[in-house]
Design brief:
Helix content of chain B: 25-40%
Radius of gyration of chain B: 16 Å
Number of domains of chain A: 3
CATH topology of the largest domain in chain B: Ubiquitin-like (UB roll)
Order of helices and strands of chain A: EHEHEEEHHHHHHEEHEEEEEEEHHH
Oligomer: heterodimer
Helix content of chain A: 25-40%
CATH architecture of the largest domain in chain A: 2-Layer Sandwich
Structural class of chain B: alpha+beta
Number of strands of chain B: 5
CATH topology of the largest domain in chain A: Uridine Diphospho-n-acetylenolpyruvylglucosamine Reductase, domain 3
Distance between the termini of chain A: 52 Å
Number of strands of chain A: 14
Strand order of the largest sheet of chain A: 4-5-10-6-7
CATH superfamily of the largest domain in chain B: Beta-grasp domain
Chain lengths: 289, 159
């Protein structure tokens, strides 16, 4: 049963920020595909609900060769999935969206809402961090932009404080020799990942690794960026042996919990396998780029 | 808490309803408008029995605040029939026996309708993906996929 709440419907971002600052016990709803579930369970019962779904100002996908990709917070998952420019320049994002929940959820749920909800099993987090995304949020006191991996601080918790709204996700233009891959492990395509791994590789002109990232999903309180793997791979000529070693590190560094879906041991094992495979896939893409 | 006025179109008809802002779209459709074709199943965005189309996009009405559909156009399973004539996907479902208990059918039809409106020459895999958000607990998926496929092949074109 959803608790009663006062409904706030701002007409602009400015008005939304003012309303949010004014009301203490206030939650923000956009698509509500995550929030309504926890509200129905009574885990979240705010006195005020601020509805930003209709804010067209935040609904955009802009790409510029120099600046990269900017996605407004109220852009739906389906809009990202169907975007030509994203499909062309960031195919991993489209592949991730196609497996994110169901079509119905993607039609109504938004990227800003997903990131603000900060579920460690969420799909966009790991992929966006592998793509070196940063996130812009702000309140009536001003805006702030932080790397996405620093944005998440704990289970369902972000750097945002009361009054802050997610405004935009910014992804830089990929380097010329860049590849990025993501896979989640689950039993049904449209389910949350039991575990997941995203990897990106940037190569130098001589074929050595300029930069790499591995980000694990549902393997700890936040999407988990494994910097030990980055240190291992940077400057080296990548091969299967290094990918296997990276997989081993991922298994060790992960902090998964055990639940009805899988044991901790099983999760560690699968994270290692996924890391190895995704690094290889990203590497091969970078070679071909 | 103050009631709100929701003005929207359902199956082409204009409605004005007074609702608590916490009212879900499925509740408005079933309890306020009496359109009980839309089913409430899991109520946790999993099963898809409550699927309706909002501005042409399929959504799970158990997890959409009705008030967010202000000024929008909603189509429910009752809206598929036009002038006493079943829609192509409805006729195809009948011909292919795409029902067992029938509980998932309204949602399946709405997902299929949204898909058929945008898909051009879809593959069988794409057809299967189009109902990924709808669960049939009788597991009668094959006949449903065949019914959608028949429509994509132009077998139910309006005369």
């Amino acid at each position: 049963m959803i608790n009663d709440f006062h409904y706030l419907k701002p007409a602009s971002v400015k008005e939304a920020l003012a309303m949010y600052a004014e009301h203490d016990d206030c939650k923000v709803i956009c698509g509500g595909q995550s929030l309504l579930i926890v509200m129905r369970q009574g885990m979240v019962a705010p006195e005020y609900l601020l509805d930003i779904k209709g804010l067209k100002e935040l609904n955009y996908i802009r790409f510029d060769e120099k600046d990269g990709l900017r996605i407004g917070a109220t852009t739906t998952h389906r809009e990202i999935e169907k975007s030509d420019v994203i499909g062309k320049r960031y195919p991993v994002l489209v592949a991730m969206e196609e497996k994110l929940a169901s079509i119905q959820t993607r039609n109504w749920g938004t990227i800003g809402g997903n990131l603000a909800h900060a579920d460690p099993a969420g799909d966009p987090g790991p992929v966006l961090i592998a793509l070196k995304a940063e996130i812009k949020f702000g309140s009536s006191n001003g805006e702030k932009t932080v790397p996405l991996d620093e944005f998440f601080v704990d289970y369902f918790e972000t750097q945002m404080e009361h009054g802050d709204l997610v405004l935009e996700v910014h992804i830089p233009t990929p380097a010329p020799k860049f590849g990025c891959a993501y896979q989640k492990f689950n039993l049904l395509d449209s389910e949350m990942g039991i575990v997941a791994a995203a990897a990106s590789v940037t190569l130098n002109a001589d074929g050595t690794c300029a930069d790499a990232r591995v980000v694990l999903g549902n393997a700890g309180p936040t999407p988990l960026r494994v910097t030990k793997i980055e240190d291992l791979l940077k400057g080296k000529k990548l091969d299967d042996k290094l990918f296997a070693e990276a997989g081993k590190i991922a298994s060790e560094e992960a902090q998964p919990v055990a639940d009805i879906h899988a044991s901790e041991e099983h999760r560690r094992h699968v994270l290692g396998v996924l890391t190895k495979r995704m690094l290889k896939k990203a590497f091969e893409q970078a070679q071909k780029a | 808490m103050e009631k709100q006025v929701l003005r929207f179109k359902v199956n082409g008809d204009e409605y004005e309803v007074f609702i608590h802002p916490k009212t879900l779209l499925a509740e408005v459709i079933r309890d306020h408008l009496g359109l009980t074709g839309t089913k409430r199943g899991c109520e946790t965005v999993s099963c898809g029995a409550c699927t309706v189309n909002v501005n042409g996009f399929s959504v799970k009405s158990c997890s959409v605040l009705a008030i967010q559909c202000q000024d929008m156009e909603v189509t429910t399973v009752e809206g598929l029939e036009q002038h006493g004539k079943l829609s192509p996907i409805q006729r195809s479902f009948l011909d292919h026996g795409s029902y067992q208990c029938g509980f998932c059918t309204p949602g399946m039809l709405m997902s299929a309708t949204a898909f058929l409106n945008e898909a051009k020459n879809p593959t069988k895999d794409q057809i299967k993906e189009s109902i990924e958000g709808n669960i049939c607990r009788c597991t009668g998926y094959n006949s449903i996929v065949r019914a959608i496929e028949a429509v994509t092949q132009g077998k139910y074109k309006e005369e």
